[in-house]
Design brief:
Length: 141
């Protein structure tokens, strides 16, 4: 206030109902909303990390399975008599492995760049860039 005579005195302020009663009884829900929004953000980040971890684990098991199959297919060339095509307990020659005998571990996941989410995000960016008008310098400057 510009006029000092219209300002409240310290006694008047202390007698005000807000000061006497401690303010409104209902609290603002802003802290609750902030915690809820933060929890949703953290959950989304956790889900992304979990999907990434699943891809890494799936890739690890796929590589390990291929290494196991290659190890089974290696032939000791110094002792070829050890390998009998009819012997089911011995090592398997590469020509005797069924082609569709690949092991699957966990859900079938696409590579991170080829996931549907990544494709949607790339698609959204392309669609937006196609709808924007190109920037052209005006002749007037």
């Amino acid at each position: 206030m510009e006029d000092p005579s219209q300002r409240l005195s310290a006694e008047e302020v202390l007698r005000h109902p807000w000061v006497q009663n401690g303010g409104p009884k209902t609290l603002l829900d802003t802290p609750l909303r902030m915690r809820r929004n933060n929890s949703a953000r953290e959950l989304s980040a956790f889900a992304g990390d979990a999907m990434h971890l699943n891809r890494v684990i799936h890739h690890h098991y796929s590589v390990a399975a291929m290494i196991d199959q290659v190890a089974l297919c290696e032939v000791d060339e110094d002792h070829p008599e050890k390998y009998d095509a009819d012997d089911e307990d011995g090592p398997i020659h590469i020509n005797h492995i069924p082609r569709n005998n690949s092991r699957q571990f966990g859900p079938k996941l696409s590579p991170p760049g080829a996931s549907k989410l990544a494709q949607r995000r790339l698609g959204c960016g392309k669609a937006q860039s196609l709808t924007r008008e190109p920037l052209v310098a005006s002749p007037s400057g």
